Amino acid sequence: MAYSDKVVDHYEKPRNVGSFGTSKEVAARKDIGVGIVGAPECGDVMQLQIRVSDSGVIEDAKFKCFGCGSAIASSSLATEWIKGKKVDEALTIRNTQIVEELSLPPVKIHCSVLAEDSIRSAIEDWKRKSGNTAATTDAAPTASTVTAH
Amino acid sequence: MQLTQQIYLDNAATTPCDPRVVEAMLPYFTEKFGNAGSRNHRFGWDAEDAIELAREHAAKVIGANAKEVIFTSGSTESNNLAIKGAAEMYARAPKGQSGRGHIVTVAHEHKAVLDPIRRLMREGFEATFITPPADGVITVDHVREALRPDTILVSVMWANNELGTINEVPQIGRLCHEREIILHTDATQWVGKMPTAVETDCIDLLSWSGHKMYGPKGVGGLYVRRRKPRVRLESLVDGGGQERGMRSGTQNVTGIVGFGKACEIALAEMDKDRAHLQPLRDRLERELTSRLEVCQVNGHPTKRLPHISNISFGFVEGESLMMGVRDIACSSGSACTSASLEPSYVLKSLGIGDDLAHSSLRLSFGRWTTAKDVDAAIGLIERAVNHLRSMSPLFDLHKEGVDLSKIVWQSH
Q1: More exposed terminus of chain A, fewer Cβ within 10 Å: N or C?
Q2: Nearest-CA neighbor of B130 among B118, B147, B116?
């Protein structure tokens, strides 16, 4: 497995690892959006949390990732890119940009797709919780829909 | 990726050659290069003498008579010859018909046993694959329950390559002899590590390999019992009639000499090797399970070889774990699907990883593994697991007491 230097760097020194509290705590906060995408049985779960200002600027972002080095690097990079951006700007980030930045091989493209999905999912969650109705139409379901069965 | 000096903990995959083995082999590349089949000159006689001496050593390490040992290219060939050769010889119906006979084996056997049996199933044989219990150990009762009146062959490995677990092969051998069923055992991980007595343990066919016991690659042995009962095999490779007609082809004299030397050393140093290996394995397992939570040693706690350790770590993905421990040369053995790593059918057959998101490492020790290597490996593994858990959303959920299997995941 030949990882690019950038992937190894993100793996060794991941940016913005963490969360803004337990799942219950963040669920109660209207300024925080959470996106959890992937599934353990597929070998990838990404969790992205964003703290958004009233004016719609992503002030802070935290990630956690269960997945391969490329998945970790993709989510780490996503947090770097969205911090300081307005939510609508963040929604323009495409997985292909992540592929290019990290030199991901074809078998790892799904990692970048998950990262893009986690951004959309977190923003969707924030929009719903904060009462911002200009929600994107095709965002994936979010952590708040993660339910027990 | 930068190349660093890796710690080699993959001795169940292969071992380095013992320098004494290499030394024994060298003359047979150059001055003693003869074909053992050349009956008319010194070159041929020297090669034949060397092969017969190697056969003595190979026989001794398994408790057999030299006439009962066939040299092959390794365990895969030995397994193929034993299983296909016995099935064809003892078939209850001719080729092209169904109902040719029933074979019993185990779900966590090596592919070199499972695939020949699957081929036989396409050729009119039937087979039962025993599901191993959670501790991985196959007992005589498991086999007894699987036997049928038309069972002609049982193939149960002596020790499992991923777990190191030891099956009740001598007891199974006695059962098979009572029922007049041929018993084959893939003893690749076992021979050279543990005392072996095919005669009293009622083994009919036994496969083993040179390169798992500090010998060269590309050479192995097959024990074929000669009396009580005399076991016969249909050959797979026909030609010059070497190896009692069961394996034609000019013998790999250098390889066989190395294999014989490796068997000789293994027998002489078995106790010493074991006394070296087991404390290393115990130390690794004790340290990792005490330093890390949700960390378990797979397979039976005591019915295990002294040099193989299979350890699972919860909430850590397999490929990232391998990346984190890339200064250790070892095998991954995840029971879970990773985006890029195949789940281990061996661990799956034991039901390990049904609770999602476990990754496993197989660490195996050898004659030249040092305590310093093991201590370094412990530190590297601990660091990698903690690093990955600090990033793992699943570990957080676990800490919050959430059952991962009860969550509806948004997979792609």
Answers
A1: C
A2: B147
Which of B313, B317, B402, B404 is most worth mutating to test chain A (most A CB atoms within 10 A of its CB)?
B317
Q: Is B17 among the residues known to form the active site? A: no
From residue B153, give the alpha-carbon distance in Å to each of B62, B75, B141, B376: 21, 18, 16, 45
- Measured in angstroms, the CA of B375 and the nearest CA of chain A are apart by 22
Residues with Cβ within 8 Å of residue B191, at least 6 apart in sequence: B61, B62, B158, B206, B208, B213, B266
ipTM: 0.86
pLDDT in tens, B307-359: 999 999 999 998 899 999 999 999 986 655 555 566 788 888 888 765 667 88
CB contact under 8 A, B340 and A43: yes
Cβ neighbour number for residue B17 with a 10 Å cutoff: 19
Cis peptide bond N-terminal to B229, omega within 30: yes
Q: CB–CB of B32/B47 below 8 Å?
A: yes
Q: How many CB atoms lie within 10 A of CB B221?
A: 31
Is residue A126 left, alpha or beta, with left meaning phi > 0 and alpha meaning psi from -120 to 50?
Answer: alpha
Return the residue in B316, B323, B406 with the most chain A beta carbons within 10 A, the one to mutate for interface testing: B323
Determine the Cα–Cα distance for residues B223 and B202; give it in Å rounded to an integer. Answer: 12
Q: Are B163 and B298 in contact (CB under 8 A)?
A: yes
Within 10 angstroms of residue B145's Cβ, the number of other Cβ atoms is 11
CA torsion sign for B3, B5, B10, B16 is: positive
Choose among B316, B281, B275, B270: nearest CA to B295. B316
Pairing state between β B358-364 and B69-72:
unpaired
Look up residue B145 and give its amino acid.
Answer: E
Segment A83-106, tens digit of pLDDT: 999 999 999 999 999 999 999 999
- CB pairs < 8 Å spanning A and B: 123
Strand partners, B205: B184, B224
Looking at the complex, report in whole angstroms how far the Cα of residue A142 sits from the nearest Cα belonging to chain B: 8
